[in-house]
Recover the amino acids of this structure.
C-alpha cells in the first residue's frame, strides 16, 4: 500500500495541502522513495513514541493506520459486523458492497480511472469473461490512480486493488494481491475473492480519504485518535 501511495501523493495537487516541512523526516512522501521494511518498522516505533497507537501492538490495520496518520495521511478504518457471518445472504455482504462502492465512486470522480465496460480485446482479471464491469486502481494515460485498500482479518492481510462486477452472475469479486500467493521471482499473484470467500468472523478495511493528507490545521491529538466505522 505504501508503494502505491508514494508516487500518488508526490503527483497530486492535494499534496500541497500539507507543507512538506510539517511531515516527519521518515515520511516517504518527502523523498519519493518507498522505504524498506526496516525503515517502516523504525517509523512505526517513532509513531508509537509520539502517541499514535500508544499500546504499541502489532495488530495489522490499526498499526498501519497509525503509521500513515503519523506520516500525515488521512487514513481511516471500517469494520464488518461479525453478526453478518451468521446471515443466510452470505458471510459479509456489507463489507463487499462497501469496497465496490469505494472503487466505483472514486472511479467516476477521477473522470474514469479505468473503462468500466471492458471490450472484447481486453482480458479482465476474471480470466476472459467480458461480461464484467470493473473499477480498479489501474489507470490509463491522464487518469488518476485510486489508493488501494488494506483488508485485514485474524492472522492475515491482503491488498485490494479493485473490484469486478460480473453482470451475468450479479456477483462482485475483489481483485487482490495476497502475500501468501506468489509467482516466480517473488511477484505477487493477482487473484479474485467473492462474497463466499469472506469466511473469517470479522474484517477490517484501511482506506485513505480522498483529500489524501490531513489539513495542516488538524490538531495532532485528533490525528492520534483512531476510530473505526462499523458497517450495519
Amino acid at each position: 500500500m505504501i508503494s502505491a501511495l508514494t508516487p500518488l501523493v508526490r503527483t497530486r495537487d492535494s499534496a500541497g495541502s500539507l507543507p512538506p516541512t510539517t511531515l516527519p523526516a521518515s515520511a516517504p512522501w518527502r523523498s519519493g522513495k518507498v522505504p524498506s521494511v526496516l525503515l517502516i518498522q523504525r517509523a512505526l516505533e517513532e509513531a508509537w513514541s509520539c502517541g499514535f497507537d500508544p499500546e504499541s501492538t502489532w495488530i495489522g490495520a490499526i498499526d498501519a493506520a497509525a503509521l500513515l496518520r503519523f506520516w500525515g495521511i488521512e487514513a481511516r478504518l471500517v469494520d464488518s459486523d461479525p453478526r453478518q457471518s451468521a446471515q443466510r445472504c452470505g458471510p459479509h455482504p456489507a463489507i463487499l458492497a462497501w469496497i465496490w462502492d469505494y472503487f466505483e465512486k472514486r472511479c467516476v470522480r477521477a473522470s474514469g480511472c479505468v473503462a468500466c465496460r471492458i471490450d472484447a480485446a481486453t482480458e479482465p482479471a476474471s480470466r476472459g469473461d467480458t461480461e464484467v464491469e470493473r473499477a480498479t486502481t489501474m489507470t490509463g494515460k491522464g487518469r488518476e490512480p485510486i489508493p488501494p485498500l488494506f483488508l485485514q482479518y485474524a492472522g492475515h492481510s491482503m491488498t485490494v486493488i479493485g473490484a469486478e462486477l460480473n453482470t451475468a452472475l450479479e456477483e462482485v469479486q475483489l481483485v487482490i494481491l495476497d502475500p501468501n500467493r506468489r509467482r516466480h521471482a517473488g511477484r505477487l499473484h493477482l487473484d479474485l475473492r467473492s462474497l463466499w470467500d469472506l469466511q473469517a468472523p470479522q474484517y477490517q478495511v484501511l482506506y485513505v480519504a480522498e483529500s489524501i493528507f490531513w489539513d495542516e490545521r488538524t490538531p495532532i491529538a485528533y490525528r492520534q485518535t483512531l476510530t473505526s466505522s462499523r458497517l450495519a
